[in-house]
Amino acid sequence: MMIVALVVGSTPALAQEPHVMWRSAGSGTLAVDPLAGPGNGSQPPVVPTPPPLELAWPDRIVFKVGMAAAFTLPINNAVGPVHWQIRNGTLPAGIMLDVTAGKIIGYPPPGSAGTYVVDLMVTDSEGRVFARAIEIEVIAD
Fold first, then answer.
1. What whole-number distance in Å separates Cα of residue 78 and Cα of residue 46?
2. What is the pTM (predicted TM-score) of this model?
3. How are the residues of the chain apportioned to helix, strand and coil, as percentages rounded to the nearest 5?
4. Which is more confidently placed, 137 or 33?
5. CATH class of 54-139
6. Which of 16, 43, 54, 61 has CB 3.0 to 4.6 Å from 76, enough for a Cys bridge?
7. Bridge partners, residue 22, by sequence
8. Taking a C-beta distance cutoff of 8 angstroms, is the pair 3, 26 a contact?
């Protein structure tokens, strides 16, 4: 997100001429003289685009009935804290998603064996989103 504001005379350094301020979460604040002309600071700065979110989890994870287990869903290139959620599907009984840690954890009870497909979504602090389905298999003894 980029915020542009016109600042006139807010500090002694800016009191003589108006300046345009760009504020970017990744690069801080830059002051630009709009009267300097093209190529001399009158254009907004180029803010590099962060690399896309990359999820490095497997296509399938396996739980065993009656055994506790935890699987971390690694994510690369995220900025700040991330939030996980289930977009579609249902986790097996006894299994939950830790929405802040990105972990699928639990203890599947008897009778929960089967294959489940869950569509997970992760959002970072800049609002970038990535979603992907994961297969969760619960096997009996």
1. 21
2. 0.63
3. 0, 45, 50
4. 137
5. mainly beta
6. 54
7. 4, 30
8. no
